[in-house]
Amino acid sequence: MGLKVVNGLKLKNLLALNILNLFLYGEFCPHTWAVHFPLASGKRQSPIDIPSGRGEAVNFSSGLAWTYDSDACDRITNTGHGWKLLVSGNGELWGGPLPSKFKLEQIHAHWGCTENEGSEHTVDGVAYPGEIHLVHWDSEKYSSFAEAANADGGLAVLGVFITVGDQAHDEIQKIVDALELIPNKDMTENLAKTVDPLKLLPESKAFWNYEGSLTTPPCLETVNWIVFKTPLTVSKEQISAFRALRAYAPEEDKPGDDEFGGQVVQNFRPPMPLCGRVVRDCC
Ligand SMILES: [Zn+2]
Q: Which residues form the Alpha-carbonic anhydrase domain (predicted)?
């Protein structure tokens, strides 16, 4: 997940967050996050390597369900470490492992410099080329996203793996078309064509579920993860377009010593130790 949650953080960490924002996956790589954000070395961190076939089979009393306005996402922003769809319409997620109704906050993605890596979660040690995150918060128990992000189980994130195939994905193309409008960090534009969150979900509802964290600093351990088993297929050109985003603002100089040439070439955190956590298998 790529989130900036500031509630409950000390000033020192806030400053670190600003510094890290530009180089999150370069100079200050994920292995160093714990220097400023101790939770990053906690026992409930995400992502994880999912042990397929060795999860705890679970049948929840009600199935996982969702409803999204087809035009829910109408704006897009360059966060400096990727694109993020902003949500104006209604989106709700409930059932399955969730105790209450969760509201869609934003959607973003992670990818790698080659198609051999890029997803945050891996399955039996194997990475996908990318992963989309649909971030929701418990709007029954909490009054804001920031409050929920700091509360145990306050967030629920749907993870959708991205795989590369011959066909371009129509909904992803709406995002790709908008990227040239937001080349630099902090740029935000209206989408010419609104994005339907439903169309970013795979056909099969089978998923893995476990308790984890945000995958970017401050790495708060408040996320109920739901990772779909079936990937979404996009074209090679589409995922390549993601890598052209720039990690610096228009008024900033292109970073001279950045190994990625100032571009968001990769933005994933590698798997973290499971530390005895249960991974539920819900088919
Ligand atoms: Zn994410």
A: 21-283
Tell me the average pLDDT across 126-130: 98
pTM for the predicted model, two decimal places = 0.92
Q: Which pLDDT does position 252 carry in this prediction? A: 85
CB 150 within 8 A of CB 179: no
Q: How far is the CA of 134 from the centre of ligand 1 (A)?
A: 8
Q: Cα of 122 to ligand 1 centre, how many Å?
A: 14
Is 81 annotated as catalytic?
yes
From the candidates 81, 108, 121, 136, which is the catalytic residue? 81
Partner residues linked to 262 by β-bridges: none
Where does residue 185 fall: left (phi above 0), alpha (psi -120 to 50 degrees), or beta otherwise?
Answer: beta
In this structure, the number of other CB atoms found within 10 A of the CB of residue 190 comes to: 12
Structural domains in the chain?
11-250+258-282 (3.10.200.10)
- Give distance in angstroms: CA of 108 to centre of ligand 1: 6
Q: How far, in Å, is the centroid of ligand 1 from the Cα of 283?
A: 23
